[in-house]
Amino acid sequence: MSLRNLWRLLNLPCDGITELMSREMEEGLSGAEWWAVKTHALYCRACRRYRTQIVELKAAVRRFGAEDVGDMVAEEGLGDGARARMTQSLREGMRD
């Protein structure tokens, strides 16, 4: 890995880091990507919260399945649009 690529990874904005976090859940990361996520998470509370949420969602999908998770999200008071997007995303993730 080039120094330039490492520097780019270490300076990713939150949307780039959350993309890496999501990918980490499915396929893992390179060493440099892992360090970029860990370093960013040290100072970014929003990204730490995002990681906690995706870990919990993945665990819920395993326990309950996508339909039950959609019902659980509905009980938590999310709007119809957010609930539909989350349920669709969970269904797509289960197919992969």
Q: What would you note in describing this structure?
A:
This protein is an all-alpha fold and 96 residues long. It has a domain at 1-46. Helices cover 83% and strands 0% of the residues. It is built from six helices and no strands. The chain has helices at residues 3-10, 14-26, 31-43, 45-64, 66-75, 80-95. α2 packs parallel to α4. The model has no long low-confidence stretch (mean pLDDT 80).
- So what's the overall shape? elongated
**What's the mean pLDDT score?**
80
What separation lies between the terminal Cα atoms?
29 Å
Tell me the β content.
under 5%
Main beta sheet = none
Low-confidence stretches: none
**Residue share in helices?**
over 70%
Structural class: mainly alpha
* Oligomeric grouping of the chains: single chain
In N-to-C order, the SSE pattern is HHHHHH
Question: Radius of gyration, Cα only, in angstroms?
Answer: 15 Å
How many strand units? Answer: 0
Tally of contiguous helical segments: 6
